[in-house]
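ok, trying the design again with the full structure, not the truncated one.
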């Protein structure tokens, strides 16, 4: 039995969604906040930056490999105990980090956090979509985008403020306090719907999905590995073989771990592609522009970070508004306007790079992040609306996994092209990528609000 709007009053539905978003907001902050603390960790554990960076890299790797498990877990367990278990797992990992006497123990706690976040992110988006009427999905997913985007933006700021006055453990203690509060609130606000259709757990598919870890590891190492690094190339070959076998098995099994066959559904395939293409630009801006401010405009790290605030604020402000607009006029024109903004932003960066003007650059960054507000979550909702409700968990998992892998690929692509300050090469590359994305928008099947054409 599926959870639908009929099972919840409007008040209970809002409290349910608010609780999910608060937990997700806190976990998203934990995902982005550690980069500011790297120097502190390096000094505390007496380790190089390359080792400390595994607090983020390992987190992303474990997230990616558990994301495909989300549909099976949602089919076989009630959401309430699943959500409370994931909160408990994250809290447990956080406590381990706070008490960690050495880096390996801290890394273990961080991986537990990654498991929790990797399962929760596609799961909570699925449940929010399922309890929201089609005509309101654009707006609510805009709120989801606002929460996730603002969390990623404020994470480094919060950790920077905490580290100014307290030890690094205080960062995780803050997460701990908030999530314990979320757990207590969830006991009253998160419902426990009946279980859905039970499906067998396929250990072979899970083993094959480990190829995602190998692929992401190779992508992350590509920027600074030599051509004769045979171990990494072997990891790539084995990972690709495992993933090919994984895809083949999912298409053959009567009850697969992940319904990859839904990629054949019109609009869902485009929703996946447009989501990760927009995310690639967003993640690249957050990584490349601080380097541009520091290396080309000679700004301090503090001011290079503050220069990103206007774009992040605009992204947060537009996210829900773009979703509401998509509910009113349809997803195709909204998504199209998003990719036009991407193209204008990257194009202006390419043309104005030689002027080295900070205000021009901030305006370009704002245009790119505004494009993301009009493209990513509307594209995600477009894809979800093309699926029956029982397929939404699979769709959310596929979108989240693709977004994670392609986000990592975008960082490596930008880093490799950048080399020793080839910023114009980066700007041109992403201008081409978003131009291709704009062409794909024209293949979206309907021009009116998708909710008017898809049966709930």
């Amino acid at each position: 039995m599926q959870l639908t709007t009929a099972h919840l009053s409007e008040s209970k539905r809002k409290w349910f969604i608010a609780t999910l978003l608060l937990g997700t907001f806190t976990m998203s902050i934990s995902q982005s906040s550690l980069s500011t603390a790297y120097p502190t960790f390096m000094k505390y554990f007496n380790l190089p930056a390359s080792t400390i960076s595994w607090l983020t890299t390992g987190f992303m790797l474990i997230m990616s490999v558990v994301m495909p498990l989300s549909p099976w877990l949602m089919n076989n367990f009630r959401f309430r105990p699943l959500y409370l278990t994931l909160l408990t797992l994250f809290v447990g990992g956080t406590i381990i980090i706070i008490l960690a006497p050495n880096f390996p123990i801290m890394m273990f706690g961080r991986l537990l956090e990654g498991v929790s976040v990797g399962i929760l992110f596609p799961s909570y988006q699925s449940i929010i979509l399922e309890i929201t009427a089609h005509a309101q999905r654009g707006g609510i997913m805009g709120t989801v985008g606002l929460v996730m985007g603002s969390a990623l933006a404020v994470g480094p700021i919060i950790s920077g403020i905490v580290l100014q006055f307290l030890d690094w453990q205080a960062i995780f203690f803050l997460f701990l306090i908030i999530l314990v509060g979320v757990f207590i609130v969830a006991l009253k606000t998160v419902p426990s719907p009946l279980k859905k259709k039970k499906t067998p757990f396929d250990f072979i598919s899970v083993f094959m999905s480990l190829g995602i870890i190998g692929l992401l590891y190779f992508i992350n190492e590509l920027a600074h590995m030599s051509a004769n690094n045979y171990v990494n190339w072997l990891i790539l070959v084995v990972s690709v073989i495992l993933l090919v076998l994984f895809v083949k098995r999912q298409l053959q099994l009567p009850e697969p771990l992940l319904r990859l066959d839904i990629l054949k559904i019109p609009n869902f395939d485009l929703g996946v592609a447009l989501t990760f293409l927009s995310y690639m630009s967003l993640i690249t801006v957050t990584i490349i522009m601080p380097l541009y401010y520091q290396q080309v405009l000679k700004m301090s790290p503090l001011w290079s970070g503050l220069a990103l605030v206007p774009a992040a604020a605009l992204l947060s402000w537009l996210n829900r508004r773009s979703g509401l607009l998509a509910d009113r006029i349809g997803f195709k024109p909204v998504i199209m306007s998003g990719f036009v903004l991407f193209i204008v932003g990257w194009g202006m960066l390419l043309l104005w790079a030689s002027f080295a003007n900070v205000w021009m650059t901030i305006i370009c960054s704002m245009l790119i992040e505004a494009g993301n507000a009009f493209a990513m979550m509307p594209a995600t909702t477009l894809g979800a609306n093309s699926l029956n409700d029982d397929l939404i968990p699979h769709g959310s998992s596929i979108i989240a996994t693709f977004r994670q892998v392609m986000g990592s690929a975008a960082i490596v692509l930008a880093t490799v092209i950048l080399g020793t300050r080839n910023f114009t090469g980066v700007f041109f590359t992403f201008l081409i990528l978003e131009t291709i994305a704009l062409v794909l928008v024209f293949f979206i099947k309907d021009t009116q609000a998708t909710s008017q054409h898809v049966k709930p």
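Keeping the full-length input from now on. Residues 137-165 form the longest helix (29 residues).
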